[in-house]
Design a protein that fits this description.
By secondary structure, the chain is α/β, with parallel strands linked by helices. The chain is built from 11 helices and 18 strands. The structure holds zinc ion (ZN) (2 copies). One zinc ion (ZN) binds next to α4.
Length: 338
């Protein structure tokens, strides 16, 4: 089988590997579609502190169950499945409080262990979620990015009367917009980005107002309009954003962050406490697959609106370069296996 392997930082190879056999409790998935994510690019460049090399990347993928390990229900053979990349122990403190995404022995498929950019991948059977016929193969490969949005919005508890502000109209920002609009019915969603084409995509994904902060400063613009966001999501993940978000937020607002930068930013207690702001962080997803699958099957989310490219898996290097460099035309890129 072919596997996309990051052999070491900066070196990607399409390797031929032996067909893997599922261990006890695992299923083997014949991968059909897999999505490229910013974190795949980070592993490629050696910017992910958790990655170990060589590594088969890819944590957003869909396929068919084609072999079963010992103890797996035989009825699962042939099932259409989308794979939750979060592998957790089930008994540590975070697992015991329903937070497997920060399990003390967390293993992320495609980061800590081999992932879905491969003709076949073996994964724990409980991580392979059945996908109903209402969701197409391509869209099923995009369930994982929507679980990121499902996770942060579960922390933020959006209300229809919130004034939401999303930083960043990349794939993460767009899934958050769709979740706020389609699931929670938030009436006012503002989106800020520095790229005009991305702001157009934000509109296509449901944003009510868009703002280009490469052209003008956001704080002044919001002030002029008399807008104080009550719910803010940083999906751009730059360390300068949190201080700005704290300054812009309405009293009693909630702020969600998802970035992984190691760079410092400066905050004061006063700026947070004087408005009694709530700041939530969100990493990966905590068992949100069933919820997102239901939302998608009900038509509350539409993956097609952020899907811009689908390329043969053999063109993975070109696809990753395009994903990284061509942010004007490129949003979610799928690799097609088989
Ligand atoms: Zn991802
Ligand atoms: Zn655990």
């Amino acid at each position: 089988m072919r596997s996309v392997v990051i052999e070491q930082p900066g070196r990607l190879a399409l390797q031929t590997r032996a067909l893997p056999q599922p261990a006890a409790g695992e299923v083997r998935v014949k991968v059909k579609f897999a999505g490229i994510c910013g974190s795949d690019v980070h592993i490629y460049h050696g910017h992910n502190p958790f990655a170990r090399y060589p590594r088969v990347i890819g944590h957003e993928f869909f396929g068919l169950v084609d072999a079963l390990g010992e103890g797996v229900d035989p009825a699962r053979l042939g099932e259409r499945v989308s794979v939750d990349p979060v592998v957790s122990c089930g008994h540590c403190y975070p697992c015991s409080v329903g937070r497997p995404n920060v399990c003390t022995s967390l293993q992320v498929i495609g980061v800590h262990r081999d992932g879905g950019f491969s003709d076949y991948a073996c994964v724990p059977a409980r991580n392979a979620y059945p996908v109903p016929a209402a969701i197409s193969d391509r869209h099923a490969a995009m369930i994982e990015p929507f679980t990121i949005a499902a996770n942060i919005t579960a922390h933020l508890q959006p209300r229809p009367d919130d004034i939401a502000l999303i930083y960043g109209a990349g794939p993460m920002g767009l899934t958050v917009i769709q979740t706020l609009k389609g699931v929670y019915g938030v009436k006012q969603v503002w989106v800020v980005d520095r790229i005009a084409e991305r702001l157009e995509m934000a509109r296509a994904n449901g944003a009510d107002e868009v703002f280009n902060n490469a052209e003008a400063a956001l704080p002044q613009a919001l002030q002029q309009r008399g807008v104080q966001p009550t719910l803010i999501v940083d999906a751009a993940c730059h360390p300068a954003i949190l201080p700005e978000a704290i300054a812009l937020a309405s009293p009693a607002a909630r702020i969600g962050i998802m970035g992984f930068s190691g760079d410092a930013c400066t905050l004061t207690q006063q700026s947070i406490t004087s408005k009694e702001l709530s700041i939530f962080s969100s990493r990966l997803n905590s068992a949100r697959f069933p919820q997102v699958i239901a939302w998608m099957a009900d038509g509350k989310l539409d993956p097609q609106r952020l899907l811009t490219h689908c390329v043969p898996a053999g063109d993975v290097e070109r696809a990753m370069q395009m994903f990284e460099r061509d942010q004007r035309t490129c949003c979610k890129v799928l690799l097609q296996f088989e």
